[in-house]
Description:
Elements: H1 3-21, E1 31-36, E2 39-43, E3 49-51, E4 62-64, H2 67-79, E5 84-87, E6 90-93, E7 95-100, E8 103-107, H3 108-113, E9 122-125, E10 128-131, E11 139-143, E12 156-161, H4 166-177, E13 181-183
Amino acid sequence: xxxxxxxxxxLAGAAAYGASHRGHRAQLPxxxxxxxxxxxxxxxxxxxxxxxxxxxxELGWYYTDDPQDAGGTAMIIAKRPGGALWKxxxxxxxxxxxxxxxxxxxxxxxxxxxxxxxxxxxHSGFGDFYLPDFGEGRVDFRRQxxxxxKEFVGRTHLVRDASGGKRIKQIIRQMEKAGASVEV
Length: 184
């Protein structure tokens, strides 16, 4: 078979794949385990629990090995006052931030909404993220293993700012102005 025929066959296969997956929902993780407060929880083949507030918005899914944590997270999402903005059947979560004893904390929804103000996170592993320096100072979001305020969605992250807090204050102002985060 010539290289020309191989190239055309690959192109046709890619086009067919793209057409068949256009508008495709994210694949749900495993089997449905139970529903808490109207929020479904799935269990994967390797025993992980996944809280799925919206099947179309995979970034908002919450993964844990603890069934009580999964149930508690689903209940927090279900009871959250004003934390979800509903458009049709799809939830878009507003981010939350909190300042306590000089430390800044944000939730997973805050991290997901950073793209709304044209900021792109980098993953540094184990649930930690950072915003690159770009001459303004690096901002680290470190996953915390503490109880979060009831309004927080997903996990709590402690924010560390290389510019002495100036950059995160600027980001929070941008997020609030864009309607992407509220202080709790």
